Amino acid sequence: MIHLILFGPPGSGKGTQAAKLVEKYQLAHISTGDLFRAETQNKTALGLKALEYMSQGQLVPDEVTIEMLRLKVESLPDVKGFIYDGFPRTTPQAEALDKMLDDKCQSITALIALEVNDDEIVKRILNRGLTSGRPDDNDESIIRKRMEEYRKKTSVVFDYYKKYNKSHAIDGYGSIDAIFSSLSCLIEDQLQIT
Length: 194
Ligand code: B4P
Description:
Blueprint: E1 2-7, H1 14-25, E2 28-31, H2 32-41, H3 45-54, H4 62-74, E3 81-85, H5 91-102, E4 110-115, H6 118-132, H7 140-154, H8 156-162, E5 167-171, H9 176-190
Parallel strand pairs: 1-3, 1-4, 2-3, 4-5
BIS(adenosine)-5'-tetraphosphate (B4P) binds at residues 8, 10-16, 32-33, 36, 53-54, 59-60, 65, 86-87, 89, 93, 124, 127-128, 136, 146, 176, 179.
């Protein structure tokens, strides 16, 4: 089964590209950010807990995130594969994902990182904040906090999968279609996924 991780800093375009990849390769899309936002909208205990962290630009604790991810994966037994968007975001999350897949005799196919610099990220997220209604999109200091969390806790996940020769990076600048084209080339030529 295919297990692709779409990786990169907040606002690098993971959600945007994942939506296109899902359609082209018929994979199931799991965005932990979207799952948390749905829980928050439904005012569940998990959603209210997640909101405390998300609205401050912090990562939600690992144990909450890992359990939510596991339940979502297990609710989709018949799919061709998965695109994980925004997960794993810490080394313990990566270890938990590997363990979960190992128990099913499966493993991560590849991690693909979208590379974008800080100024472009702030510009994109503030722009999204004009319409998204997300509390973490409107305030530059919270956006900078998210970027700091990424550098401190998340960027190491790239090196974690690099040890297994599974990490790839592509340029996250340019039009959405141009980036999608680079992603598709990598997926088809290097990963041999069709
Ligand atoms: P996420 O929902 O994952 O959101 P994101 O990182 O902001 O966005 P993404 O990279 O998907 O960017 P997008 O395509 O939307 O996380 C939100 C929060 O949830 C986290 O801060 C954390 O608190 C919590 N969370 C989620 N997962 C977690 C986990 N595993 N562990 C702990 N906590 C977790 O693009 C951004 C904007 O740029 C959009 O407006 C888009 O239209 C625009 N854009 C995209 N591509 C563009 C391009 N090529 N050119 C110009 N603009 C572009």
